Amino acid sequence: MSVQTEGTDTAGEPAVRKTRIPGPPRGEDRGSRPPARRGTAAPYLLLLPALLATVVLLGWPLVKNGMLSFQNLNPRQLIQHLTEWNGTDNYQEVLTGSDFWNVVERSVVFTAVNVVLIMVTGTLIGLLLARLGKRMRLLLMIGLVLAWAMPVIAATTVYQWLFAQRFGVVNWVLDKLGWHSMADYNWFGTQTSTFTVIILLLVWGSVPFVAINLYAATTTIPKELYEAASLDGAGAWKSFTSVTFPILRPFLYSTTFLEVIWIFKAFAQIFAINEGGPDHLTETLPIYAFVQGVGNQHFGVGAAISFLTIAVLLVMTSYYLRMVLKQEEDEL
Amino acid sequence: MKRSLFGRLWPNATAVVLFAGFVFPVYWMFATAFKPTGDIISENPVWFPANVTFSHFEKAVHADNFWTLVGNSVTVTLCSVLLSLVIALFAAFALARMRFRGRRGLIVTFMLAQMAPWEVMIIAIYMIVRDNDMLDSLVPLTVFYTMMVLPLTILTLRGYVAAVPKELEESAMVDGCTRVQAFRRVIFPLLAPGLMATSLFGFITAWNEFPLVLILNKDNEKQTLPLWLSQFQTAFGDDWGATMAASSLFALPILILFIFLQRKAVSGLTDGAVKG
Amino acid sequence: MKRKLAAAIVIAGMMVSVAACGGNDGKDSGKDAGPDSWKGQTLTVWTMDGSAPPQWTKDVQAAFEKKTGAKLKFEIQKWDGIQQKITTALSENNPPDVLEVGNTQTPAYAATGGLADLADLKKETGADWTPSVSQSSVYEGKQYAAPWYFANRVVIYNKKIWAKAGIKDTPKTRDEFFKDLDTIGKKTDAEPLYLPGQNWYFLDGLIIGQGGDLVKKQGDTYVSNLADPKVAAAMDLYKKYASYSKAPKDKDEATPQQATIFAKGKTGAFIGMGWEAGTAIQANKAIEKDLGYFTIPGASADKPEGVFLGGSNLAVAQNSKKQSLAKEFLKIALSDQYEGELAKLNGVIPNKTSLQGNLKGNGAAEAAAPAAAGGGTTPLIPEWAAVENTPNPIKSYMTAVLNGKAPAAAAKDVEGEINKRLAQQN
Asked: Which chains, if any, share at least 3 CB pairs under 8 A with chain A?
């Protein structure tokens, strides 16, 4: 059941590697190669479609977005196709307001909480999968795959129903468990409770990816390593820290990186649950950019916020990106 | 290793609890969809749909243009997944197997591309598409969805290509194959499960997307299912039976696809790729 | 290697061609040569959910197609997110030709330059439009839209439940109304009133009833007036009404559609537009015979509660290439025959006083009429529309008060946001 979506790990190596013994993963030995590379143009030609797509479909909107962020763009300008440059006004408006910094702080905390929850739960479940017998493993795996495959919009709708004030099954259960004040509780009325639902939804939907892939990665760890470790008198925890963890480290890095991006960018889950409400209190950066830009029809300001959003994301992932740069450098 | 009874029991017990936790929302969606309204809005939840009804599904499917939207969604999703797989396969092969100037920069570029927050760029995309006269068309949707999944597809496939032992390729070439033939006959079959597994991400992204289609395609006949589902919810308000039926219909193809492709991906990987 | 290269190039070419061309599919040609060119064209009209009854659409369509030889396509729009949708649509080359715009939002769209000047239409058919209702579509002296219909809210109630509670007569004063709601709560298992926390049009009516307003002028700019004690008094009334309802405090009357809840027959009454009765009947045919209407009662029997005069205008997109056809449509749709039919079917106030005879016998319209004289609107300034954008700060204010916050404090919380939106340059 190995879905190697972890291909982005540091060295670009999949975690599946049967022949290798621990040690920090490195790039594969590229010393002995068949003389297969004739034309130096070949790799560039192979990459051409991908590059073209990136330039046209991502680069162009980014440049356009950058240009919009220096414009006064409201319905009148949009409708009449007017271009009104206004220098850095949009950025000043955003950066000097208190809203923006609150949202940045909220987004960072939100991302951290979610990613920690997802990685810890996912890892534990992944390790549990490795311990289970065949049948139980299949059962849990089915549960995980169903949660993973559930399309986000369907999932948010279902969560709204689960947490519905009237007739929602969650409130019923809490009531029956003796927490009677929850019988008619409105989950979308406060910031904390709305975030609780959103976090549950995100963790539920994201854990399977981590768990299944982590399990797949553990299957590639040779049994002999554990045997050797136990001969040295290592207990369960010791063999985890000395055998399992080092091998899984690149996988954990790359998955954390992906989860940071995915959670930080999460849009549909938050927006569909409560549109960033109540009172803007569950707006993370992408939602804030959307509400200010599209919702408020202040498109220039929205573009500026979206650029700042990208900047924040870059800062958050810079550690990993630097690591990749270095690794790839070593490899060549 | 010997384990105590407790040691053997708790993993299984935990697994059952976890299974229930992960499956319940999916189960509750289907269960609600099949229950008559009286059982849905009852003071005590009806855990199993005893009196099965299909009326909610009838209501869901009855929406205007439902089948047109299904067609649009399927077209857009399939096309963008295929397109991204093809483009990514070329790129992944180059990145995993060849050495050239700028390789490192490209890998980082794709990692950065992976971070693009699409939802906040939709006005820019809208203006580009509008100014090129391509609104109300499935083409921009397809290509932008392709781009949304392309970076991760490239990076993932690169891992799969690298995992195919080079010796296989080499021995094929020793046997007289050209590199292209070696790729087609040896590497590609081994990559197939990887391609399938990778395509899952594309399927789920393209099938789900709605902010872009909302702003680009105002023509009812050019919209996709996510819009139908989200409008359905406002239109039917607290009619949870119909809403859950619609959600079930929306989720079902992806659920089936995942279970199917997952199994394929497993058998392929264990039988083929890693054997060498 | 060659074949792979070829494939790469083909893909690359595909991407480019896909991105670069493909325009002009299905676009109508841009000529507008008057009646001769009408045949074969298709006119697209956007109406809002619930505005145009199916019978009316059918009749207008038939008349239009017969007269012009062109096709008419009605597209029903949802209120949710409509402002962004209209804004982007008006910027396009091929926008909907005619669109319904809410009266509170018309000045803003007029100011964007996206709506066509309808001076000639006004001259031809609009001489006797009721000036007070035509006012919202005039901006800087020009007619940017044609008044279509108006309506104010009434109480729609379930006769069966009221009879069960032993109430004989409909209430004439606010206090009687509250007493009746109490009785229903005590004597039946029905919810006395369905009133979600964010029905801000109802609140606006209460504010108008108190003689207050949502904004005030400060120098050259408009600022929030929510801190006014008159607004607080209106909000207290709202809170009193809401206490009879189990409806969510953080939702408006359209999510879920309150009429569909009412249609289940377990709600004593709700406050809504006359046409919402139709929505209820559509959801549950059996409710039709139990429907009744009365004017929202005020403090005393002689003066009904203040109401928000909602309404819609029909505008022509400036970018539409079918201006003459669009105006022809307006002439037909707003003609005495079809304007009258709309008033009759939906129980809405038509744009001419001469057509009000159509309302006779329509329970909802007869209940609405007494209050209309004391009705008002949101400020008719272009800056206003931005305040209504999601998330609407007035709605946040309402939810906060209903959750126990003091009106003054809640007003203070949203003032900044409202003022920011009112100051938003166009």
From this structure: B, C
Residues near B97 by Cβ (< 8 Å), separated by ≥ 6?
B161, B162, B166
**Beta strand pairing call for C154-158 and C267-272:** antiparallel
pLDDT in tens, chain C (426 residues): 444 445 445 444 544 444 433 334 433 444 455 777 788 899 999 999 888 989 999 999 999 999 999 999 999 888 778 888 999 999 999 899 999 999 888 999 999 999 999 998 888 888 888 877 788 888 888 999 999 998 899 999 999 999 999 998 999 999 999 999 999 999 999 999 999 999 999 999 999 999 999 999 888 889 999 999 999 999 999 999 999 999 988 888 887 789 988 998 999 999 998 888 888 888 888 999 999 999 999 999 989 999 998 889 999 999 999 999 999 999 999 999 999 999 988 888 888 888 888 888 888 888 888 888 788 888 888 888 888 887 889 999 999 999 999 999 999 999 988 998 888 766
Structure tokens at A100: 């923006």
Cβ contact B130–C27 (<8 Å): no
CB contact under 8 A, B100 and A140: no
Q: Which domain holds residue C140?
A: 37-151+310-372
Same domain for C367 and C415, yes or no, is no
| Closest chain B residue to the Cα of C257, Cα to Cα | B237
Cβ contacts of A320 within 8 Å, gap of 6 or more: A253, A254, A256, A257
Nearest chain A Cα to B125, which residue?
A: A61
State the DSSP code for B117.
Answer: -
Q: Which of B133, B180, B237 sits opposite C93 (nearest CB)?
A: B133
Residue with tokens 């927490």: A179
- Which residue among C372, C394, C414 closes a domain? C372
Minimal Cα distance from C317: which residue of A?
A79
- Alpha carbon distance C86, C101 (integer Å): 9
Q: How many CB pairs under 8 A join A and B?
A: 320
What distances in angstroms separate CA C200 from CA B12, C235, C252, C310, one per listed residue?
A: 54, 10, 8, 12
Whole-angstrom distance, CA of residue B219 vs CA of residue B134: 12
The model carries a pTM of: 0.85
Q: Which domains does chain A have, with CATH numbers?
A: 76-331 (1.10.3720.10)
CATH number, domain B65-273 = 1.10.3720.10
- On whether both C218 and C176 belong to a single domain, the answer is yes
Residue C147 lies in a domain: yes
C413/C330 same-domain check: no
A49 contacts in chain B (CB < 8 Å): 86-87, 90-91
Instruction: Report the DSSP beta bridge partners of residue C350.
Output: C149
User: In chain B, which residue's Cα lies nearest the Cα of A54?
Assistant: B147
Residues C98 and C132 in one domain: yes
A49 contacts in C (CB within 8 Å)? 8, 11-12, 15
Q: Looking at chain B from residue 46 to 85, which residues have their Cβ under 8 Å from any Cβ of chain A?
A: none
Q: Are residues C140 and C196 located together in one domain of the fold?
A: no
- Residues of B within 8 A of C20 (CB-CB) are 132
State the chains in contact with B (3 or more Cβ–Cβ pairs under 8 Å): A, C
**ipTM entry:** 0.89
Residue C60 maps to a domain:
yes
- Report CA-CA distances (Å) from C59 to C53, C62, C149, C331, C341: 10, 5, 17, 14, 9
Q: Which residues contact C47 (CB under 8 A, 6 or more apart)?
A: C57, C74, C75, C76, C77, C100
Q: Are residues C182 and C46 in the same domain?
A: no
The domain locations on chain B are 1-53, 65-273
| Integer CA distances (angstroms), A155 to B37, B129, B197, B255, in order | 21, 30, 21, 12
The answer as to whether C194 is a domain residue is yes
Looking at the complex, does the CB of residue C357 fall below 8 Å from at least one CB of chain A? Answer: no
Q: What is the 8-class DSSP label of residue A59?
A: I
